[in-house]
Design a protein that fits this description.
The complex is a heterodimer of chains A (about 400) and B (about 130). Chain A is built from twelve helices and eleven strands. With about 400 residues, chain A is α/β, with parallel strands linked by helices. Chain A is globular. Chain B contains one helix and eight strands; from the N terminus they run αββββββββ. In chain B, strands 6-5-4-7-8 form a five-stranded antiparallel sheet, with no helix packed on it. The chains are: A alpha/beta (about 400), B mainly beta (about 130).
Chain lengths: ~400, ~130
């Protein structure tokens, strides 16, 4: 069974805040849900499917369903694979809709790590008690930054990737962010700016890292009959793939990501190839994340990511593969330390023709959104969706 | 310019009933690794089941305690430290720290040997590596 054509993204909303001093996490969920409903032309009581993650306050979806007043729910899913969850939720919602388990699904994400002064990338943190790998990793000061950095270090060793090549990814994101009035970092940067910024975890510099921001976003998916009755452009879910990757029992290889498996699954379901993709939202917790995922999704040969991203190839209107035209996690925002939601939202904007005119891909009808959640160099979730403007 | 490894305070390790034998051996200065007796293959990290067959036909065996740096990163915090995956001579790659050296000289492929570093209170020592 395929989800191709069985569900549409009918509503999308990104919270404009980047520092939510005056809103609780639950209230941010309410504001993004309301925004997405307004965008779709629907109301709260139309929702019969609800998707959130462990980042939502409470027990699975229960406390948020209560706060939001969702009384008609007959399907829910709180699959949590970190920042990739919201890309995966698009696939799961399309599956549920295709099976008739719900007709209109709401996906929400919100968080305020910045207002809460959370040390996100450079302080050891884990996911709770009884995690079996923790006794073998936490004592070593495992952080988000150094685990991604170890992937970059090995990638450089095996393939000759350079810091300057990684820097081009940030440069491209900054070129896009300059047009986004909500972006945290709107200044256009150069390769020299990136490689001369302070080292965080060798070989990743400060400007190789994403921003830390508050905010969130929401999506609404609906079955085809409902989507066609609404007034928004039709954005069809065409394919979805998911995977997990880990240390493979000690035979680990940190030079590739789960995109190697989730990507082909999504492309097969969609019946398209990487060459067909006109716009790509690529998870950008760090520059190395983007580079490895581009290779693993098949946009270039393995090991050639450095050459692929150099010289502005990811800049809209300049290069062959416009990516993260909102500025992405590297420059725009990374709400709740989870970038999957905004990846889908910008892909929807591109397909609707509603991206900023300076970065809009002309005639964009086929887009990809991809997320990596958890830790690239230890264990992570991987989700790919392919969306089409009808 | 050199970056000497800091002697940062190490947090307590969450020992549980299944991994306790590993950490008991660490207290004696021995590094153990998992062995799946169904397949004869070593595995990391130690656990009560085989990640190859899921059976509990596993045991902990002593590793030689030597290997090479597979990858690493120096965390440039106030107290710099080096995380790494070390490939043991037995073929498995373990998450660890490289210690007791100039962190600016750590390299992929470098030969290292195991050392044990005290953690907090009664918690067992951490299994780390230092250049040979």
């Amino acid at each position: 069974m395929s989800i191709n054509g069985k569900a549409y993204i009918v509503g999308a909303f990104e919270h404009p805040t980047r520092k939510a001093d005056n809103q609780s996490v639950a209230q941010l969920h309410a504001e993004v849900a309301y925004g997405a409903l307004q965008d779709a032309g629907l109301t709260k009581d139309d929702i019969d499917g609800f998707f959130c993650t462990g980042a939502a306050p409470g027990l699975g979806p229960l406390n948020m369903a209560d706060y939001l007043g969702l009384t008609k729910l007959r399907h829910f899913d709180s699959t949590d694979v970190g920042g990739s969850s919201y890309v995966m939720h698009v696939g799961h919602a399309a599956e549920a809709i295709s099976m008739g388990l719900c007709d209109i699904a709401l996906v929400t994400l919100a968080g305020r790590p910045r207002a809460e002064a959370m040390a996100t990338g450079t302080a050891p943190r884990t996911w709770g008690a009884n995690v079996p790998d923790d006794p073998f990793e936490m004592v070593y000061g495992r952080t988000v930054a150094n685990v991604y950095a170890m992937c970059a270090m090995r990638h450089m060793h095996e393939f000759g990737t350079t810091s300057e090549q990684l820097a081009w990814i940030k440069v491209a994101a900054s070129h896009h962010a300059q047009w986004n009035e909500h972006a945290m970092l709107r200044k256009v940067v150069t390769v020299e700016d990136v490689v001369n910024s302070p080292m965080v975890a060798d070989p990743l510099h400060r400007l190789d890292c994403c921003v830390i921001s508050d905010g969130g976003g929401a999506l609404i998916l609906a079955k085809p009959e409902i989507a066609r009755s609404l007034k928004r452009p039709l954005v069809k879910v065409k394919g979805h793939g998911e995977a997990t990757k880990n240390q493979n029992a000690g035979y680990t290889d940190v030079t590739f990501s789960g995109a190697r498996w989730s990507g082909p699954r999504a492309f097969e379901e969609a019946g398209v190839t990487p060459k067909d993709i006109q716009y790509a939202s690529i998870y950008d917790s760090f520059t190395i994340t983007v580079l490895m995922q581009l290779e693993d999704l098949g946009f270039c040969e393995k090991g050639q990511g450095g050459k692929f991203v150099a010289d502005g190839n990811l800049i809209s209107g300049v290069g062959k593969l416009p990516f993260n035209t909102d500025g992405g996690g590297l420059c725009n925002n990374h709400p709740a330390n989870r970038g999957g939601m905004t990846k889908v939202i910008e892909a929807v904007r591109q397909l609707r023709g509603e991206a900023h005119p300076k970065v809009q891909v002309p005639g964009c009808t086929l887009a990809l959104a991809h997320g990596t959640g958890g830790l690239l160099g230890t264990r992570h979730g991987s989700a790919t969706v392919i969306l089409e403007r009808e | 310019m050199a970056t000497p490894a800091s002697n940062r305070a190490l947090p307590a390790i969450a020992v549980d009933p299944t991994n306790k034998p590993y950490f008991d051996a660490a207290r004696e200065g021995r590094m153990l690794i998992g062995l799946c007796k169904d397949t004869g293959k070593h595995f990391w990290y130690p656990r009560g089941c085989s990640p190859f067959t899921l059976s509990n036909n596993v045991e902990l065996v002593e590793a030689k305690g030597t290997g090479t740096v597979y990858t690493f990163s120096v965390m440039r915090t106030k107290e710099p430290y080096c995380v790494a995956y070390v490939e043991l001579d037995e073929g498995i790659r373990v998450f660890t720290n490289i210690v007791d050296c100039d962190l600016d000289q750590v390299k992929i492929g470098q030969k290292v040997k195991v050392v044990f570093k005290p953690t907090t209170g009664d918690s067992p020592p951490a299994t780390m590596f230092t250049p040979v």
